[in-house]
Specification:
The chain is mainly α. It has two domains: 82 residues, no CATH class; 41 residues, no CATH class. It is 51% helix and 3% strand. The chain contains seven helices and two strands, in the order E-E-H-H-H-H-H-H-H. A two-stranded antiparallel ribbon has the order 1-2. Strand 1 and strand 2 form a beta hairpin.
């Protein structure tokens, strides 16, 4: 990281939860910050794709419809309820599976090469403690040394 981002331009970390579902509050935070013109520019390219895309696919909702709903206002819990009403309801096993995926993304899977490239590009290739995308994001955004 050449210049650390302004903390006010960042959503919460990827492992934060809403009603037991990881990543969801981060996605909503990105939507809100982007709409306010405050989102860290490095995060613009992945709005609605990447982990955002995986999350809305998991929930069975359209990203643009979700974006519209988020900008209407309401708590993260209310918006998750809206997603479950329009997509599919989640049980505890669904949440456990999603959370495991979110927490381990980049560790010996289809994203491993992307993680290695991001680490190398950021001068972090020697950081063996960064083993997942969540670890990388937290380091990149200054939440973790």
């Amino acid at each position: 990281m050449i210049h650390p981002p302004d903390p006010a331009s960042l959503p919460c970390g990827p492992l934060e939860e809403t009603a037991g579902l990881m990543y969801f509050p981060r996605m909503l935070g990105k939507i809100r910050l982007h709409a306010a013109g405050c989102l860290w520019e490095d995060l613009h390219a992945n709005l609605g794709i990447g982990s955002d895309g995986a999350c809305v696919e998991f929930l069975h909702v359209d990203y643009e419809a979700l974006r519209t709903r988020v900008l209407e206002g309401g708590s993260d819990e209310e918006i998750l309820q809206w997603c479950e009403e329009r997509g599919r309801p989640l049980n505890e096993t669904d949440k456990r599976v999603w959370n495991y995926y979110t927490a381990k993304l980049g560790w010996n899977d289809h994203i491993t090469e992307i993680l290695a490239k991001r680490k190398a590009d950021a001068g972090l290739a020697d950081r063996d403690d960064i083993q997942t995308i969540a670890h990388y994001i937290d380091v990149d955004e200054g939440r973790r040394p």
